[in-house]
UniProtKB/TrEMBL annotation:
Name of the gene this protein is made from: uxuA
UniProt cross-references to Pfam families, sorted A to Z: UxuA (PF03786)
Protein name: Mannonate dehydratase
Function: Catalyzes the dehydration of D-mannonate.
Catalytic reactions on record: D-mannonate = 2-dehydro-3-deoxy-D-gluconate + H2O
Keyword Manganese annotated: yes
E.C. number: 4.2.1.8
Amino acid sequence: MEMSFRWYGTEDPVKLEQIRQIPAMKGIVSAIYDLPPGETWPRETIKSMKAEIEQRGLVWNVVESVPVHEDIKMGKSTRDSWIEKYQETIRNLSHEGVKTICYNFMPVFDWTRSKLDAPLPDGSHSLMYDEELIQQIDPLDGSLTLPGWDLSYQKDDLRVIMDEYKEISKEDLMENLVYFLERIIPVAEEEDVLMAIHPDDPPWDIYGLPRIITNEANVMTMLKRVNSRNNGITFCTGSYGADRNNDLISMIEHMKDRIHFVHARNVRWTSEKSFQETSHSVHDGSLDMVGIMQKLIEAGYEGPIRPDHGRMIWGEEGRPGYGLYDRALGAVYLNGIIDAVRERR
Ligand code: DNO
């Protein structure tokens, strides 16, 4: 597997020089951040980001994410022009040699948490999701703003969009996703690009918005409806694993040919639909990280993997979930498992 690390560009307090010093680190997962969602990414911008990463002895192996314009998710009449822009971005990335693209199809809100600095018993803190608290928060009143959310919306626009979503069922959303895939996957095939959809996080509906990339049945439907190897997934252990009904080992078995990127992290279930993120260790969270890694290896997975969110430890301050220290520990832990499992085979 190609151990990789998410980097938010020159604004990121975590520097490429630091990432480079994590043992066996190879890839950088990044994106162009200063363009409005949906606009085509120019080749020149991609090229200079790639050069910056390569100067530090790393490789830009995965884009996370190319955002999908809301009109595409909503199936609006304007979607075709946004899809053309998306196709162009795929071509531009491919021409610059970046061949794996992570994206998501979550209506309006990307990953959602109720608290960004919930304490853990060891004195560190981490991201937490409490279903009851989330239900009490009005996402439009401004009291909760999460790093994954697109802030380019005006509040009133957002209210209109959320109202419009009331008319869009899960089935409609799946049709809109298939419509999008039927048009971008042929381009990905031509360009030898692997598309890797990220699960909805958490993997259930929030704020009355439909969510579909949540479980094995839905993902299999999506994979079969557009049955191409280039139509694949980001296997995010923490997102799928937040729902204890998801059997991660079975998912890997059934999706193995279509996993193109892995996010590895652990969570501790605190109630039916609530959880807190923990260190990557199998001793801290509810997920069997060793079993999952072993299964990925047995399934022949050789692609990029990154330690996902970390706790904030040792007094570090920074982007919630994306500090240096705990993600570095995560990378080393995951590599230890990979090396040990390989050795034993
Ligand atoms: C959160 C991330 C997500 C992810 C997108 C992919 O930390 O895992 O924001 O990047 O959903 O499109």
